[in-house]
Amino acid sequence: MATVRVFSAAIALALMLLICSLVNGPSVVAQSGSPCEVESLPDDDLASAAVGLTRQEMDALYGPGIAAQTGWIYQFAGFDLTLSNCDLILSIDPNGEFADFASVRELVRTLLPEDAVHAGTWGFGTLQSVPQDADEWISGQLAARYRLLGEPRTGSILVLYTYDGDAYDPGSVIRVEIHPAVIPR
Questions:
Q1: Distance of CA 80 to the CA centre of its chain
Q2: Strand order in the sheet with 79-84
Q3: Is 102's pLDDT higher than 60?
Q4: What are the respective helix, strand and coil percentages of the chain, to the nearest 5?
Q5: Could you identify which of 8, 26, 29, 160 might form a hypothetical disulfide with 177, taking C-beta atoms 3.0 to 4.6 angstroms apart as the criterion?
Q6: Which helix (H) or strand (E) holds 182?
Q7: Contact indicator for 82, 73 with CB cutoff of 8 Å
Q8: Cβ-based neighbours of 86, under 8 Å, separated by 6 or more
Q9: H or E segment to which residue 82 belongs
Q10: Domain locations in the chain as residue ranges
Q11: For residue 16, is pLDDT > 70?
Q12: Cα of 27 vs its chain's centroid, Å
């Protein structure tokens, strides 16, 4: 009998959470829209080659992006850059010049705001998982840009590097995700 009560309590809790998300979820989504999508160019001091730029700024620098389900793709020699709302995703050619950690890290640095300061590096993964490294960068210019755009984001930037190997032999960097931090609500 105790199992039935625990099970029915769990179902009741799950249903309450589902109803709350249905009631509150659409209003939150309708208010925010897609993050970092603006029609006008901000008038500020952001000096960046990619991170924090609007799609219009990216198009002006690199030519029109290619529309995809995941965002706007810009193609370069050795990597593709996808602008997905506020995030940037780099798809790295595993045989290209940016496949090793030191080279791709230098590439990432060129895409960050000029005032970005390195705050730390971490390694993730287990012996059985694909290894990942992460860097954190902090930019006052990026924080000011997000305040100007009304985006709930800070100037902290998480950079996540993914390899094609394992913990014993990490192999080449094949993907880099650059995520400006969201202010918790």
A1: 15
A2: 66-68, 71-76, 79-84, 87-92, 173-182, 153-163, 132-138, 117-124
A3: yes
A4: 30, 30, 35
A5: 160
A6: strand 173-182
A7: yes
A8: 35, 36, 52, 151, 153, 179, 180
A9: strand 79-84
A10: 1-33, 55-182
A11: no
A12: 24
Instruction: Find out whether 114 and 143 touch, Cβ atoms under 8 Å.
Output: no
Both structure tokens of 48:
């960046």
Give the residue carrying structure tokens 């930037």: 157
* CA distances, 184 to each of 31, 38, 151, 160 (Å): 17, 22, 12, 20
In a 3-state reduction of DSSP, which class is residue 116?
coil
pLDDT > 70 fraction of the chain, expressed in percent and rounded: 77
Q: How far is CA 7 from CA 15, 20, 43, 183, in A?
A: 12, 20, 56, 36
Mean pLDDT of all residues in 4-15: 40
Find the mean pLDDT for residues 45-71: 93
Lowest mean pLDDT among 4-13, 30-39, 163-172: 4-13
Q: How many residues does the chain have?
A: 185
